[in-house]
C-alpha cells in the first residue's frame, strides 16, 4: 500500500512492484521499422456521405491538421532507461484493468515511434500532439536530469520534423512523478510549482529550437477532480483534506502553469529560444440548459464556471476566479493574490480545448439555492442534476446526440452544438492566437467485443462522428468567423484509457494488444479524416511530402 515519505527510486518502484512486476514488451520485426503497408482506401467503394453545404469550403492557410496521443497512454517502457514511476504506474498496478494492455507496455510507442510516425504521416497530417513524460526527464520529479530520457524526445521530435510534422508538446498529461506525491502531496502542495518550473525550463531549453507550440498541462480541471480520491488522499499535506483538496490543486496547478509560461517568455526574451507559443489544454464544454427555466440556465452557468471558467477566466480574462466559484467555495478556494493575478492574466498565447461533446445541464432536484447553501449536499458546489447530462430536452427521454459506448456515457456525438460552443469559447475567452481543438474523438460502440479484424476496422460511427465534427468546424471558420487554427483527433492509435484500460477505444488505428508484436491496423475513420482534410485544406497544408 502507498506509503508517503518513501521517496528513493527503489522504494517507489517497490511500492508498485510488490503487487506485480513491471512487464516488458517483446521485441518484434515491427519494432521501429518505417516500412508498412497502406491498405486500399475503403471509402472508395463505399464513399463517405458528402456534405453539399461545405463541399467547396476551406480551412484557413496554415491550419494545423493533427492527431494526438500522450506519453502515459502510449509509450510503455515504464522502467526503461532510468524513467521514474508516476501515479499512473501505481494506480493500474493496484487496480489492473480487466482487459489488456498493461500500462507497462501499452502500444510500446517508446520502441516504435518511427513506425508510428510514418504510419500517421501516411494520412497527410502536418501536426502531432504528444507529451513528454516528466518522469523520463526527472525520474524523481526534481534533482538530476536524466540525459537518456532527454535523448529519447530528441529522437521523437527530430523524426516528426523529418516527416514535415510539427510537434505540439504538452509537459504534463496526468502523469506526475510518483516521488512528488510521496514527498509532499503532488499538486495539493504549492511546493510543486518550483519543481514543475524546473522541469519545464529544462525541456524548453532542450527542445525550444524545434518545438514551436507548447502546452503546459493537459486538462488541469480533470486532474484536480481526481485529487480528492486515492492515492492522492493518502498524502495530503498539512491543512489539506477531502473538502478543500480539489481547490488547492486548482490553485497550485494554475500557478505552476503561469510560472512555466513566465519562464518560457523569459527564455525568448533572453534569446535562448527564438520564438514559439504556449498555452494550457482546457476541457469541459459549457452545457446547454436542459430547459428554458431560470434554474436550468443558472445550472448551465455554474457548470461553465466550475468546470471551465475556474481555469480559463484567470488566464484569458482578468487573473481571477469566477465570482460564482469564489462565493460558493468560500475558504476552500485559496484567493488569488495580486501577484498571482498578474502572473496568470494573459498567460496563454492561444486557446486550446478538448471538445468531445456538449452535454446538458439541469438544476439540482432540490433547487440551486438549497444546494448551494448546504456544503454537505452531494451535488455541492456545482449543484447540477448529474443524471441529466446526456438526455435531450425532447420529452420522453431521448438522448442528447448519438450516445457512444454505454460504459462511457460522457461521450456523445453532439455535432449540432459544436458551432455555438466554439462561438461561446471565442467570445468568453478571447485569444489573439486563435482556438485549437486539442482533442476530439469517439469510442466506437462495442469495438472491444468485435472479434474479426474487418469488424474492428469498420468503425462507421467513428467515421460519421469525425465527418460531422469536421463539417461543423468548417462552418465555424467560414460562417461564424471563429479563428479556429487547428484540430487534433484523439487518438493516433488505440491506447490505455485510464482506469478502464482498453474497455473503450478511440484510436484511428487498431492495436492488437493480444499479439506481443502489437501490430497496428488502419481503421476506416483514418481514411475519412484524411480524405476530408485533403479536400478542405489550402494548398500545401496537406502533408504529401
Ligand atoms: C482527454 C484526455 O486528455 C485523454 O487522456 C483521454 O484519453 C481522452 N480524453 C479520452 O477520454
UniProtKB/TrEMBL annotation:
Pfam families in the record? Glyco_hydro_1 (PF00232)
Q: Where is the signal peptide?
A: none
Superkingdom of this protein's organism: Eukaryota
Record-level GO BP terms: carbohydrate metabolic process
Any GO molecular function: beta-glucosidase activity
Q: Do you know which PANTHER family this protein is assigned to?
A: BETA-1,4-GLUCOSIDASE (EUROFUNG) (PTHR10353:SF53), GLYCOSYL HYDROLASE (PTHR10353)
Give the similarity note: Belongs to the glycosyl hydrolase 1 family.
Full protein name: Beta-glucosidase
Q: What is the lineage of its organism?
A: Eukaryota, Fungi, Fungi incertae sedis, Mucoromycota, Mucoromycotina
Amino acid at each position: 500500500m502507498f506509503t508517503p515519505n518513501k521517496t528513493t527510486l527503489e522504494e517507489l518502484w517497490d511500492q508498485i512492484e510488490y503487487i506485480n512486476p513491471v512487464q516488458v514488451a517483446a521485441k518484434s520485426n515491427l519494432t521501429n521499422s518505417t516500412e508498412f503497408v497502406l491498405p486500399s482506401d475503403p471509402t472508395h467503394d463505399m464513399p463517405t456521405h458528402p456534405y453539399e453545404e461545405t463541399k467547396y469550403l476551406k480551412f484557413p492557410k496554415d491550419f494545423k491538421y493533427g492527431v494526438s496521443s500522450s506519453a502515459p497512454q502510449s509509450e510503455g517502457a515504464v522502467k526503461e532507461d532510468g524513467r521514474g514511476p508516476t501515479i499512473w504506474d501505481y494506480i493500474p498496478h493496484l487496480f489492473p484493468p480487466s482487459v489488456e494492455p498493461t500500462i507497462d507496455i501499452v502500444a510500446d510507442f517508446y520502441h516504435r515511434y518511427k513506425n508510428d510516425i510514418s504510419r500517421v504521416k501516411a494520412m497527410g497530417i502536418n501536426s502531432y500532439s504528444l507529451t513528454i513524460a516528466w518522469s523520463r526527464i526527472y525520474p524523481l520529479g526534481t534533482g538530476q536530469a536524466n540525459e537518456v530520457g532527454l535523448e529519447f524526445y530528441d529522437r521523437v521530435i527530430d523524426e516528426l520534423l523529418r516527416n514535415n510534422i510539427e510537434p505540439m508538446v504538452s509537459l504534463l498529461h496526468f502523469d506526475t512523478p510518483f516521488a512528488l506525491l510521496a514527498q509532499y502531496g503532488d499538486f495539493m502542495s504549492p511546493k510543486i510549482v518550483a519543481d514543475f518550473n524546473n522541469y519545464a525550463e529544462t525541456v524548453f531549453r532542450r527542445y525550444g529550437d524545434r518545438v514551436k507550440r507548447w502546452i503546459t498541462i493537459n486538462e488541469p480541471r480533470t486532474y484536480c477532480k481526481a485529487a480528492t480520491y486515492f492515492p492522492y488522499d493518502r498524502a495530503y499535506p498539512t491543512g489539506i483534506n477531502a473538502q478543500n483538496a480539489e481547490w488547492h490543486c486548482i490553485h497550485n496547478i494554475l500557478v505552476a502553469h503561469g510560472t512555466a509560461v513566465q519562464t518560457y517568455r523569459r527564455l525568448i526574451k533572453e534569446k535562448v529560444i527564438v520564438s514559439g507559443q504556449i498555452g494550457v489544454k482546457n476541457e469541459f464544454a459549457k452545457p446547454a440548459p436542459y430547459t428554458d427555466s431560470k434554474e436550468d440556465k443558472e445550472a448551465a452557468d455554474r457548470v461553465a464556471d466550475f468546470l471551465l471558467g475556474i481555469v480559463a477566466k484567470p488566464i484569458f480574462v482578468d487573473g481571477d476566479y469566477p465570482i460564482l466559484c469564489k462565493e460558493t467555495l468560500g475558504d476552500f478556494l485559496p484567493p488569488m493574490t495580486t501577484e498571482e493575478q498578474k502572473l496568470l492574466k494573459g498567460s496563454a498565447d492561444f486557446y486550446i480545448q478538448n471538445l468531445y461533446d456538449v452535454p446538458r445541464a439541469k438544476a439540482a432536484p432540490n433547487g440551486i439555492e438549497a444546494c448551494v447553501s448546504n456544503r454537505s449536499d452531494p451535488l455541492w458546489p456545482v449543484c447540477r442534476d448529474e443524471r441529466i447530462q446526456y438526455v435531450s430536452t425532447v420529452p420522453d427521454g431521448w438522448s442528447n446526440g448519438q450516445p457512444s459506448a454505454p460504459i462511457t456515457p460522457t461521450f456523445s456525438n453532439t455535432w449540432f452544438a459544436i458551432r455555438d460552443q466554439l462561438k461561446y469559447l471565442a467570445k468568453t475567452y478571447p485569444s489573439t492566437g486563435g482556438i485549437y481543438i486539442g482533442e476530439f474523438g469517439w469510442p466506437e460502440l462495442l469495438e472491444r467485443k468485435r472479434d474479426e479484424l474487418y469488424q474492428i476496422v469498420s468503425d462507421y460511427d467513428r467515421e460519421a462522428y469525425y465527418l460531422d465534427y469536421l463539417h461543423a468546424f468548417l462552418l465555424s471558420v467560414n460562417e461564424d468567423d471563429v479563428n479556429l487554427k487547428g484540430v487534433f483527433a484523439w487518438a493516433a492509435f488505440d491506447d490505455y484509457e485510464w482506469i478502464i484500460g482498453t474497455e473503450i477505444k478511440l484510436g484511428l488505428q487498431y492495436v492488437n494488444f493480444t499479439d506481443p508484436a502489437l501490430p497496428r491496423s488502419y481503421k476506416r475513420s483514418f481514411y475519412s479524416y484524411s480524405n476530408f482534410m485533403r479536400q478542405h485544406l489550402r494548398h500545401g497544408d496537406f502533408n504529401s511530402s
